[in-house]
């Protein structure tokens, strides 16, 4: 129990800070740019992989206490890798349902501290990128994020009722999920996956970058940590 709990409550930003420390000595000169995509991909896969494992751990912790849920989740409605939005949304609802068994009137929309989650997500991204080689390698997207994060991530976009994300963030997550599959299955080795001109003109294309991907992963992580902390309180 303690190993799962410690892992679930460990912020995913720890991976990003480890990367910053590991890459500090290489600098940010032109000669480092060939390394950038490799480092970004490796970091991204570590973060998505850790989050997928965290989702599975949350399910198992609920199933350890609630045997009806165990039968439902592991026999009737099994999950895959927990990487898609649909699966993360299912686990979000599972966690809410588990809380509601002890506290029926719990309203995630008002009780989760969405304002602090949004602000800390944005601050974490800025803290990680600023004064690091990551901000040089992804300069354009980082500047775009700094100037527009208040419109890209709003409180009304996440943790509303039993929805993890509203449509605005779901669309952004679909870009993340597509890139996750490309990296995980190494399609870059035999497909260029260059965007079409129509894709470049699409407004959503500006969100298809590592800064936004990291922000979404951090946001999801903070939501689930807050909910799991509430779950620990009510079962005690």
Describe the overall structure.
By secondary structure, the chain is an all-alpha fold. The protein has one domain. It is 70% helix and 3% strand. It is built from 12 helices and 2 strands. The chain has a two-stranded antiparallel sheet with strand order 1-2. Strand 1 (158-160) and strand 2 form a beta hairpin. The two termini are 14 Å apart. The mean pLDDT is 91.
The protein's oligomeric status is single chain
**How many whole angstroms does the radius of gyration measure?**
18 Å
Strand content: under 5%
- Give the helix tally: 12
Helix content: over 70%
Number of strands: 2
Read across the widest sheet, the strand sequence of neighbours is: 1-2
Features:
globular; 236 residues; mainly alpha; two-stranded antiparallel ribbon
Task: Give a quick precis of the structure.
70% of the residues lie in helices and 3% in strands. With 236 residues, the chain is mainly α.
Set out the fold topology:
Layout: H1 2-9, H2 13-23, H3 33-65, H4 67-76, H5 85-100, H6 108-111, H7 114-129, H8 133-137, H9 139-152, E1 158-160, E2 163-165, H10 167-184, H11 197-201, H12 210-235
Antiparallel strand pairs: 1-2
Helix pairs in contact: 1-3, 2-3, 3-4, 3-5, 3-12, 5-12, 7-12
């Amino acid at each position: 129990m303690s190993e799962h709990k410690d892992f679930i409550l460990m912020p995913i930003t720890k991976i990003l800070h480890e990367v910053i420390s590991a890459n500090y000595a290489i600098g940010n000169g032109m000669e480092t740019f060939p390394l950038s995509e490799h480092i970004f991909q490796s970091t991204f896969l570590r973060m998505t992989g850790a989050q997928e494992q965290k989702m599975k751990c949350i399910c198992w912790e609920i199933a350890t206490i609630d045997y009806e849920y165990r039968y439902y989740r592991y026999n009737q409605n099994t999950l895959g890798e927990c990487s898609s939005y649909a699966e993360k949304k299912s686990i979000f609802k599972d966690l809410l349902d588990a809380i509601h068994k002890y506290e029926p009137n719990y309203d995630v929309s008002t009780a989760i501290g969405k304002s602090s989650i949004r602000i800390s997500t944005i601050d974490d991204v800025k803290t990680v990128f600023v004064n690091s080689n990551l901000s040089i390698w992804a300069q354009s997207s980082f500047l775009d994020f700094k100037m527009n994060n208040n419109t890209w991530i709003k409180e009304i976009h996440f943790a509303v009722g039993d929805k993890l994300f509203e449509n605005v963030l779901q669309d952004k997550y679909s870009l993340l999920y597509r890139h996750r599959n490309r990296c995980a299955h190494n399609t870059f080795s035999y497909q260029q996956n260059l965007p079409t001109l129509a894709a470049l003109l699409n407004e959503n294309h500006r969100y298809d970058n590592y800064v936004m991907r990291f922000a979404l992963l951090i946001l999801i992580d903070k939501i689930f940590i807050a909910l799991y902390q509430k779950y620990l309180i009510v079962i005690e």
